[in-house]
Amino acid sequence: MPITRNRTVSVPAHPDPRFATGIVGADQVNVVGLERHLRRHVKGEVRFDDGTRAMYASDASNFRQVPIGVVVPRTLDDVVATAVACHRYGAPLLSRGGGTSLSGETVNTAVVIDFSKYLTGIEELDVDGRTVAAQTGVINEQLNKHTGKQGLIFGPDPSSHSRCTIGGNLGNNSCGIH
């Protein structure tokens, strides 16, 4: 797979925090170096090809923003390695679950981390404490099927419950009709 044609990409620059302004410039991200770094340090999938970037450029909203690249982590260590690489190269980072957002929260000119493929484990269920430990990519409905056997449900019930992830529910403060 060839490295992306663009050697650098412009990302919105942060304005000086002392002044109330909009975005006034752009920083350059060395995409080639970032991709190589990620491929060396991430065991999961590192995708910078045009097809993947096009797939992740939209969600359930009307917004479209082509990402710099996509990482599909296999482990939490992959997530940490991705954050370290993005910091090193000055690249924005965006977490993504099911992509069911209607407000564009899962698209941006950033490195997108897709938690929904591998980080889907449901771990400790404490019925007495009414808590459960689950990884970010667990689908809302799958968690409720698991906890429902004990008479418990996870509070948010957005209409996309069969596709949205727990991380997305928490990150977007999802609630649903109840």
Proportion in helices = 25-40%
What global shape is seen? Answer: globular
Q: Count the strands? A: 8
Radius of gyration: 18 Å
Number of helical stretches of at least 4 residues: 5
Structural class: alpha/beta
Please render the helix and strand layout as text.
Layout: E1 8-12, E2 26-30, H1 31-41, E3 45-47, H2 50-55, E4 69-72, H3 76-89, E5 93-96, E6 111-114, E7 122-126, E8 131-134, H4 140-148, H5 166-171
Parallel strand pairs: 4-6, 5-6
Antiparallel strand pairs: 1-2, 3-4, 7-8
Helix pairs in contact: 1-3
Describe the structure.
The chain is 26% helix and 19% strand. The chain contains five helices and eight strands, in the order ββαβαβαββββαα. It has helices at 31-41, 50-55, 76-89, 140-148, 166-171; strands at 8-12, 26-30, 45-47, 69-72, 93-96, 111-114, 122-126, 131-134. The strands form three sheets. The protein has a four-stranded mixed beta sheet, with helices on one face. The protein has a two-stranded antiparallel sheet with strand order 1-2. Strands 7-8 form a two-stranded antiparallel sheet. Strand 7 (122-126) and strand 8 (131-134) form a beta hairpin. Helix 1 (31-41) packs antiparallel against helix 3 (76-89). The mean pLDDT is 86.
